[in-house]
Design goal:
Layout (H helix, E strand, L loop, with lengths): L1 H11 L7 H13 L2 H42 L2
Length: about 80
């Protein structure tokens, strides 16, 4: 079981490094914004990221439940 969990973790939970374009744009924006604008931008980004995480978790949870139901139906008939 541990090897399966490790394989899943390695394959699906790898975090990509920021691209050069993203870093360059971030630096350009950072130089132009005031301190309060930077805080507001970070709040917006955090909220967007939280929404994405919640959506991803909900999709995983629904997919997992559907997979279990499907497996139960398949194996209960045989």
């Amino acid at each position: 079981m541990n090897s399966t969990l490790q394989k899943i973790t390695e394959e699906y939970f790898t975090f990509r490094k920021n691209s050069e374009t993203l870093q360059a744009n971030r630096m350009r924006l950072t130089r132009k914004l005031s301190k309060s604008d930077k805080k507001l931008l970070l709040r917006i980004i955090d909220e967007k990221d939280l929404m994405i995480e919640n959506t991803a978790f909900n999709n995983f949870e629904k997919g997992f439940c559907m997979g279990i139901q499907f497996a139960f139906e398949v194996f209960s008939k045989h």
